[in-house]
Specification:
The chain is of the alpha/beta class. It has one domain: 2-enoyl-CoA Hydratase, Chain A, domain 1, CATH 3.90.226. The protein is about 45% helix and about 10% strand. It has a 6-stranded mixed beta sheet with strand order 1-2-3-6-8-10, sandwiched between helices. A two-stranded antiparallel sheet has the order 4-5. It has a two-stranded parallel sheet with strand order 7-9. The protein is globular, with a radius of gyration of 20 Å.
């Protein structure tokens, strides 16, 4: 008989609850089962006086650390979305509720964001009291490449990045490293990858006076890291402050810099429809609290799969990237200039009355 190994390992050591994501072959992409396991353990520890703080890490094929979480399980989303499996609805509702719990968690929640931290991996780390990055960190919200939008609270945390860097990250899906993550308020400090195990072990072995002492101890281990984006910041703010996607792309294409031309070419590969939706999402989210942003994103995700029967940008994007792997998604509309404002606005109409919203309980 083959023994099934849990995809979420949790234990209390000393005064700290320790969580290891244990699906290394999938780069710890979140399944519905993993979301449920994380929720259950966090709720149990929330009211456990013996647990003063929580720490979470990923794993790779060699062992702990190395990859944090590459996002949601997009192959599951494609399969479930293609056949109308209701678990797709459960996945997003429960994942967003988990994201909200982490942001509002009453004890320090410490995320070791080593290796790949994308999509759903950002959702389970951006709400942390301490967000630790390493020289191996590759951080992104790459959803526009699969005809989706930066969800899991992406509207909330990207809209709060300095200047217009949130719009830039959301629309392009570009990957950043540790220094830029700290500079853009998406991480709190740097720890060399080979120092992670030492700090992790100390969390479980040392005695702490209270929760605050745990946070102070970990923060004292972190160092600064240099950002690389500084030179592009002025250009990012200039172009991504423009009032529409066609205006942003036209200005980039007319510019005389390699960075601008490369950025325009990248945007031309993304789903034209979802670029418009994402710009609207980030700008609306600037004025929202997290609960309202997650409710908006829950509305958006329903529309991504069901607004246009047989024409889901998300199913087509995942097909091209992860299923058939032909890397030639057939977007509809095909061009950024052909997206109608009415179609974009229809994504923001909630399918539910407020009292019946799947995330009505979030505060």
């Amino acid at each position: 008989m083959t023994e099934t190994v849990s995809e979420v390992l949790s234990e209390v050591r000393g005064q700290v609850g320790l969580i290891t994501l244990n699906r290394p072959r999938a780069l710890n992409a979140l399944s519905l089962g993993m979301v449920r396991d994380l929720m259950a353990v966090l709720l149990a520890w929330k009211d456990d006086d013996k647990v003063l703080a929580v720490a979470i890490r990923g794993s790779n094929k060699e062992g702990p650390f190395g990859a944090f979480c590459a996002g949601g399980d997009i192959r599951f989303l494609h399969q479930a979305g293609s056949v109308g499996n209701p678990e797709i609805e459960d996945f997003f509702t429960e994942e967003y509720a988990l994201n909200h719990l982490i942001h509002s968690y009453p004890k320090p929640y410490i995320a070791f964001m080593d290796g790949i931290v994308m999509g759903g991996g950002m959702g389970i780390s951006q709400g942390a009291a301490l967000r630790i990055v390493t020289e191996r960190t590759k951080m992104a919200m790459p959803e526009t490449a699969i005809g989706l939008f930066p969800d899991v609270g992406g509207g909330y945390f990207l809209s709060r990045c300095p200047g217009r860097t949130g719009e830039w990250l959301a629309l392009t899906g570009e990957t950043i490293g540790a220094g830029d993550a700290i500079a853009l308020n998406l991480a709190d400090g740097f720890l060399a990858a080979d120092q992670q195990a030492r700090v992790w072990e100390a969390l479980g072995a040392q005695s702490f006076a209270d929760s605050a002492a745990i946070k102070v101890f970990v923060a004292s281990q972190l160092i600064a890291a240099s950002a690389h984006l500084a030179s592009a910041r002025a250009e990012i703010d200039q172009y991504f402050a423009l009032d529409s996607v066609p205006a942003i792309v036209a200005a980039l294409e007319a510019a005389d810099s390699d960075w601008a031309r490369a950025t325009a070419a990248l945007l031309r590969k993304r789903s034209p429809l979802m670029l418009h939706v994402v710009l609207e999402q980030v700008r609306r989210a600037r004025a929202m609290d997290l609960a309202d942003d997650l409710r908006m994103e829950r509305d958006l995700v329903r529309h991504c799969f069901y607004l246009r029967p047989g024409q889901s940008e998300t199913l087509e994007g995942i097909r091209a990237l992860a299923v058939d792997k032909d890397h030639t998604p057939r977007w509809n509309p095909e061009r950024i200039e052909d997206v109608s404002p009415q179609l974009v606005q229809s994504f923001f109409a909630s399918p539910w009355p407020a009292h019946a919203h799947p995330l009505a309980a979030l505060r």
